[in-house]
């Protein structure tokens, strides 16, 4: 008789504890899963497809003073930003693997051609790719703007950006006039933000 009572009490005790154990166990599983996801995202190496490349650009004033000058090898000899003093230059950081970069380039090229008489230049700074890759892309698309090769990404780091494409409008005195958040520029954005400066 005593053993039956003990058995019933034991079953009742298990029934009372069981829901708590389920709740605690579920909470531990959820917290553990979130922790693993966070660590995985933090430690995962960046690849071309995983790099952040937002598709919408809004013009923003430059938040910091940058050391804008640089000299890099280009597809047609060395390229120095100082050579463009006295004119507006759109420094555009890009790569061939970046879809928004490729999407904006026809507009950048067309805008430069339309405003070349105003002394405006698009200076396309390729980030991290070899000469053959860049040359093949430019030749295949017939773009006319000068291209610089930032093979080790040093100038990109100098401009304090992490995502492509990124663009900076450099004024005649060499200072940053406008900076756009990473994302593709459209012809409408260029007309809105740069044309009044060229006309003024």
Low-confidence spans: pLDDT under 50, at least 5 residues? 2-7, 9-15, 33-65
Name the structural class.
Answer: alpha/beta
Could you give the order of the helices and strands? HEEEEHEHEHEEHH
Shape estimate: globular
Question: What Rg is obtained from the alpha carbons, in whole angstroms?
Answer: 28 Å
Describe this structure in words.
The chain has 200 residues and is an alpha/beta fold. The chain is built from 6 helices and 8 strands, in the order αββββαβαβαββαα. The strands form 2 sheets. It has a 6-stranded mixed sheet with strand order 1-8-7-4-5-6. The termini are far apart. 25% of the residues are buried. Residues 2-7, 9-15 and 33-65 have low confidence and may be disordered.
Layout of helices and strands:
Layout: H1 2-43, E1 59-60, E2 71-74, E3 77-80, E4 89-94, H2 99-115, E5 121-127, H3 131-141, E6 147-150, H4 154-158, E7 166-170, E8 176-180, H5 187-193, H6 195-199
């Amino acid at each position: 008789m005593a053993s039956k009572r003990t058995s019933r009490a034991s079953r009742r005790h298990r029934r009372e504890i069981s829901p708590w154990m389920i709740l605690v166990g579920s909470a531990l599983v959820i917290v553990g899963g979130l922790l693993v996801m966070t660590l995985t995202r933090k430690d995962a190496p960046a690849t071309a497809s995983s790099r952040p490349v937002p598709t919408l650009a809004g013009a923003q004033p430059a938040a910091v003073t940058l050391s804008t000058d640089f000299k890099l090898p280009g597809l047609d000899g060395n390229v120095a930003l100082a050579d463009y003093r006295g004119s507006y230059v759109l420094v555009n950081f890009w790569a061939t693997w970046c879809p928004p970069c490729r999407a904006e380039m026809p507009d950048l090229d067309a805008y430069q051609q339309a405003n070349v008489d105003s002394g405006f230049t698009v200076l396309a700074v390729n980030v991290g790719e070899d000469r053959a890759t860049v040359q093949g892309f430019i030749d295949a698309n017939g773009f006319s703007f000068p291209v610089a090769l930032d093979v080790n990404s040093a100038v990109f780091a100098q401009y304090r950006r992490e995502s492509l494409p990124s663009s900076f409008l450099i004024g005649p005195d060499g200072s940053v006039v406008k900076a756009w958040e990473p994302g593709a520029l459209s012809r409408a954005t260029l007309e809105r933000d740069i044309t009044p400066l060229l006309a003024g």
